[in-house]
Design goal:
The protein is mainly beta and about 425 residues long. The chain contains 2 helices and 28 strands. It folds into 2 domains: about 270 residues, Sandwich (Jelly Rolls); about 130 residues, Sandwich (Jelly Rolls). It has a 7-stranded antiparallel sheet with strand order 20-13-10-15-8-7-28. A hairpin with a 2-residue loop joins strand 17 and strand 18. The longest helix has 9 residues. About 40% of the residues are buried.
């Protein structure tokens, strides 16, 4: 793996890799004849005229160009949903799900996608979708690219190998991988099964949040994001090229592997990040910051300071604040929050919120610690405490997460979720003083 540094900082620096010495074109992006008889092809993740610091593109030098495939035809996918996400009315009720069960029949990564919720409009390149994935077999003769948005993938169980046009990336639970819009890949299982979460971002590409008064160091550091080393395969046969386009799945015949890029350079590439490298910022006096302080990546919207979608984590960390209610405070939020759990326990919900599960608290739907977590927090003798066995995350959006019928009616949705707060009794000590308005 080569390091991907300034790409996420927004400096627009380019990076390069070649699988054969001399394959990388140095002086001209598209020479009259490329080395080794390769074809030069540009992949653009932004408008040609986007400002330099946000202009995303890469040059690929490949054995055969991407235009060589048959016509696309529609493929039925029963659990993959696209915009508009309004086929049912999403209630403001707080919701929680157990882990999605593995299917009884074998499935690969694409076949095992299930859409939970979404917002915005694919055709307007705004909003995002939340999917769960499960897989019990590798992709063999199928290749996939997503024309609708970027995939931010959070593995929860089972390691995966992503074979991409830019090279291979292995990712395990505790890491994330981002596959930008349009990049072709295959997914191989490194264990007998795998499942996890996906945020599909239709809007502006993910970037690191600004640090403001934190200063130069903190949160996720650019040097820790890794891009693949160039690798290619020259394979011919009868294959399928799958595409997600306008919320639907399409396929076309292709007679060669599209993972045939021998060299590349640019700043539009797939990348991974190990969440254990996140430099957590927290209070060392009293109270605690808003959960936004745990933002790893953000997709901005046209409204400054208000995200199209944020990726936020709650990793292992010290809690030392004095005279403070340490779990997440009760709140109602204009942002809409979907939370998942990779491993361990979440301090506000020590039971019921299971690794692989999820919960949804939409705009202005009240949420916070369950009754057990509250009673424990207000009666604890506060000492420095290290939260060691935990890794939760949140997909937070300025738009409502509209549920799919699959999610609302799922057998694994906990119908009794609201009961976790039923034990929150009134402790009001009025001393019999009447209060009137």
């Amino acid at each position: 793996m080569s390091q991907l540094m300034s790409y996420l900082s927004g400096f627009g620096n380019h990076f390069e890799s070649e699988a054969l010495e001399g394959a990388l074109v140095k002086s001209r992006n598209s020479p009259q004849k490329a080395p080794y008889g390769l074809y030069a092809e540009q992949l653009s993740g932004s408008a040609f005229t986007a400002p330099r610091n946000v202009n995303l593109h890469s040059w690929l030098y490949r054995i055969q160009p991407s235009v060589l495939h048959g016509a696309f035809s529609l493929v039925t996918h029963p659990t993959l949903v696209g915009t508009p996400f309004n086929s049912i009315h999403t209630p403001p009720t707080q919701m929680r799900w157990d882990p999605m069960p593995y299917p009884s029949s074998s499935c690969n990564f694409i076949e095992g996608l299930t859409t939970i919720a979404g917002n915005g409009h694919i055709e307007m390149q705004t909003g995002a979708a939340i999917h769960l994935y499960c897989a019990t077999q590798s992709m063999q003769d199928e290749f996939f690219y997503n024309a609708d948005g970027d995939f931010l993938i959070v593995p929860q169980e089972g390691a995966l190998r992503f074979k991409t046009e830019f090279g291979m990336i292995d990712v395990s639970p505790g890491e994330i991988i981002i596959l930008p819009r349009g990049i072709t890949f295959q997914v191989y299982l490194l264990q007998n099964k795998a499942r996890g979460y996906i945020c599909e971002n239709f809007g502006l590409p993910f970037k690191l949040p600004e640090l403001g008064v934190i200063g130069a160091n903190g949160l996720a550091n650019p040097r820790d994001f890794l891009a693949p080393t160039a690798a290619f395969e020259e394979r011919h046969g009868q294959f399928k090229l799958l595409a997600k386009f306008q919320g639907l799945l399409w396929n076309a015949d292709i007679e060669h592997s599209p993972l045939n890029v021998v060299a590349w350079h640019g700043n539009y590439v797939p990348y991974k990040y190990n969440l254990s490298l996140f430099n957590t910022i927290n209070s060392v006096s009293f109270d605690h910051p808003d959960p936004s302080i745990f933002t790893v990546l953000t997709s901005p919207s046209v409204v400054a300071g208000t995200a199209n979608v944020d990726f936020v984590i709650f990793p292992p960390r010290w809690m030392v604040a004095n005279d403070t209610f340490r779990p997440p405070y009760y709140h109602r939020n204009i942002m809409s929050e979907y939370m998942g759990l990779v491993h361990g326990t979440y301090d506000a919900k020590e039971t019921g919120f299971i690794p692989g599960g999820g919960c949804l608290h939409n705009c202005m739907s009240a949420h916070g610690p369950d009754a057990f977590a509250y009673d424990k927090a207000v009666s604890a003798s506060l000492q420095p405490e290290y939260y060691s066995d935990t890794l939760a995350f949140m997909f937070e959006s300025k738009q409502i997460w509209q549920l799919t019928p699959n999610a609302l009616n799922a057998d694994y949705r906990q119908k009794n979720y609201l009961e976790c707060w039923k034990g929150l009794k009134s402790n009001f000590e009025s001393q019999s003083i009447p209060v009137t308005f």
